Amino acid sequence: MTDQELDLSPYAVRTDLAVEAREMAGPPDTPIPGVWQEASKNGGITVTRMHIQSQEGARAIGKMPGHYVTLEVPELRRGDTDLQDRVATTFAKEFEAFLSRIGVGPKASIFVVGLGNWNVTPDALGPLVVENIMVTRQYFELMPDQVGPGYRSVSAVAPGVLGTTGIESSDIVQGIVETAKPDLVIAVDALAARSLERVNTTIQIADTGIHPGSGIGNKRKGLTKDILGVPCIAIGVPTVLYASTIVNNTMDMVFEHMKQHTPNTDPLFGVFGSMKENERLQLVKEVLEPLGHDLLVTPKEIDKFIEDIANVIASGLNAALHEAVDTDNVAAYTH
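^ Germination protease, sequence as received from the core. Prediction below:
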């Protein structure tokens, strides 16, 4: 087998974020056919809107065709409640626009699914969001004449994980969808990132559905329009990254730091300095192999953060889904 025929996909940097996949595909100022992107920044919140329009664009960056919106807030880790309120408001407005862009009207019924394991903190985002969702379907079913204007039918469930229920989350959700017949499914899940800076600081919205466990290498039945029969929007926050990715990123930072002090780094790094990213990652994974697997790492502040970001997403969703909730002031729903 020649070098050109080697399958290096197991050594590719794993990421669930479309913005990171786009960065790995090439310089930001170099257009990629079939990929449209725009970004705006306001008050420390960067919003990137991306539309992968063709299979050519999908192959170029390794993400499915569809719409992606990413909110990046580097200061979110500080626990600033005012900033959290502004992020919730921005998220609500972006999600409202996202629904309009993909053709979901104000009367469409919604089913929110909180994926993940509530017993494992970095994986508890979905269940925590579901706890704070404004659920209204029961009123539409039992007393529709008493429902005030500005509300829609919203239901929610946290189906657990295969290891605790013995049933695939996708099968549970599919059964509920067939019975409740919502117009749209919103799936909330924890993600994996490539960059240290984006862990616990980023929210992604995508209309491509979701695959439970995909961020940590699991290939299982997902939640998509093809499987469920209705559109599925995925909301995710990266809460973990691989130890091999951390080591690889650290090596990059060391290389860049030393280049600022000497024009010739060859005597310092030798062959390491000339390695491509996937080659370095392959080496790092081989070194970590004696541990039995590549470690998943999460910041030590995850306990507080996961509650805060779950409240931000839930309050943003409540404002975006119900016209009666003021999108410009969601502070009452974030604490």
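Residues 16-241+302-333 form a domain with the Rossmann fold fold (CATH 3.40.50.1450).
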